[in-house]
Amino acid sequence: MGNSRVSLRWVAQQAGVSPATVSRVSRGSATVSPELRERVLRIIEESGYRPNHLGRALAETRHGALGLVFPGLSGPYFSELLQGFEEEVQESGDSMFLLASHSHSETDTRVIDLAGRVDGLAILAGTVSDAALEQVARQVRLVVMCARERGAHTTVTMDNTTFGALARHLLVEHGYRRLAFVGNPDGSPDVTSRWEAFLGAHREAGVVPPAEPVRVGLQQSDGIIAAQQILDGGQRPDAVMCANDETALGLVLNALGRGLRVPDDLAVTGFDDMDMAAMVRPGLTTVRQPIRELATTTARLLADGEPRVTRHITLPTRLVLRESCGCRPAAAGPSDN
């Protein structure tokens, strides 16, 4: 029979691991190393511990739940983010609460209320106010995703400087001199970082950048709107760099519908490397970012981390060169693996 006096936290302390790791082992998770699994199982066997998720949560004044706050479910980016977060939360044995803000005026209030019902919150940067972040951090563990600054809160973000490397590739390798940027930096830390990297690449290349970005959203329909503004607005740029793949694909569709050739008449690039980027013709040059890893790393920090330990993690990104920027298919192949 199991020993009801032995808690999950006690087992974790004896094994020198986090409570979430003990939960993974007891649930048969494949994400734990064989050596670690053997050590935890030995302590579980010797102590007679038997997991009881609901009872454990009540005894330790825990909710047994983690929360994710993000703008909404539109597009493949947020779908991938949600799947990655859910996958890791299941491994930790917790439940999951979702809050899609949809730019709601009462988002701060709703997020603070959610913080009272979970043990940790993951919040996409720019979704709530700084004041709300501070209040949430006083209540529960907090991880801010895609934050621009390494502040007082734990963050997990992407290396957006690769967008600058892509801009330099267009300016130097292809010799393009008129580049346009599609994306709205206002309210989006990621887009702001990519716009700044875009400007920095122009400074390094000694090329005058455009005065302003083409300020549209991040959906495919926004790419079509951006194409109309760019292609109907006078002198056509040599290349258009979009803040994400969805807008890039919308822009390509509009350009092709006008009889333009990509990249001969207009080069186009994106950011994300969503599945469709490799399937369209011409293949979309982009920057690959590990969206699922962003979500799983965030959830793991919430499940394993200590409340007052602050960490800052930047995940690597890399160029994926395909035909839409003017690279030949043979050159694009090795970068596409």
UniProtKB/TrEMBL annotation:
Domain of life, source organism: Bacteria
Kinase listed as a keyword: no
Taxonomic placement: Bacteria, Bacillati, Actinomycetota, Actinomycetes, Kitasatosporales
Protein name: LacI family DNA-binding transcriptional regulator
Gene Ontology molecular-function annotations: DNA binding
Family annotation (Gene3D superfamilies): 3.40.50.2300, lambda repressor-like DNA-binding domains
Entry keyword Metal-binding: no
InterPro entries: HTH_LacI (IPR000843), LacI/GalR-like_sensor (IPR046335), Lambda_DNA-bd_dom_sf (IPR010982), Peripla_BP_I (IPR028082)
UniProt keyword annotations, A-Z: DNA-binding, Transcription, Transcription regulation
Domain HTH lacI-type: 6-60
